[in-house]
What we know:
Blueprint: H1 10-30, H2 38-53, H3 73-88, H4 92-95, H5 97-109, H6 131-137, H7 141-149, E1 162-165, E2 172-176, H8 181-189, H9 193-212, H10 215-223
Antiparallel strand pairs: 1-2
Helix pairs in contact: 1-2, 2-5, 5-7, 6-7, 7-9, 8-9
Amino acid sequence: MKNFPAIDDPKAxxxxxxxxxxxxxxxxxxxxxxxxxxxxxxxxxxxxxPFIKAKSRIDNPGAHPSDDEPxxxxxxxxxxxxxxxxxxxxxxxxxFPEIWRQALTAYFDAGYFExxxxxxxxxxxxxxxxxxxxxxxxxxxxxxxxxxxxxxDISRVPHxxxxxxxxxxxxxxxxxxxxxxxxxxxxxxxxxxxxxTAVLGALMRRTMATTTCTPSxxxxxxxxxxxxxxxxxxxxAAL
Length: 239
C-alpha cells in the first residue's frame, strides 16, 4: 500500500484492522446465506466502505495470537493478499456483480492493490499472474471486467506460455503463448461463457472510450509509458 496514514495509536489501529476484516468477512460469508437478498448485501457493503476509505489495515485475528500491536509489514501483506484474493474468487462476483464492482473499485482507488504488481492469493492460479489473469482463470467475470475498466494491461495476459501435455507421447507443447489475450479468452469461453462475455464487453467499452476521446487526450494516453515490470511476489504469512 502507498501513502497510507501513519499509525499513531497502535491499539486503536489494531482494533480497526480487526473490525475491517470482520466487515469484509461478513460480506463474503453472507453471499452463501443471503439467498439473493440484495438489500442485505448493500448494507454489508455500506458497513465496509468506511474502513476502505479510511485506509485501515486488514487483520484476521484467527490467524495469529490476538494482541494490541499492529501487524508487521510482511504479515499484513499476507493478510491483504488473502483478503483481496477471497474477494476475487467469490461467488458474489456473479451473484452480486454491482456490489463486487464497487468493493473492488473502492479498494483499488484507496491504494490497497495495484493491477500489475499485487500478489493476490487466488488458488490455484500461479502467483506471477496479474490480477486480471487470475480473475479470468477462475471465471470471475465481474472482477476481470472491473480490472479492465480500471486500466489493466491485457498484453501481459497470460503472463507466460500455457502448455499442454500429450498423455500418449508425454510431449509438451505450447497451447497459448504469453501475451495472447484473445487465445486465452477463447480457451476459457467454454468453461466460463458469462465471465468471458463480461471481459469482452469491458474491453469493448474501454476501446470505445479511447476512440471517442479527443485527439489530444488520445495522443497523450498513447504517449504514456507502459506499466513497470511486476515486482517479485510478496511472501505471504501462513494463515
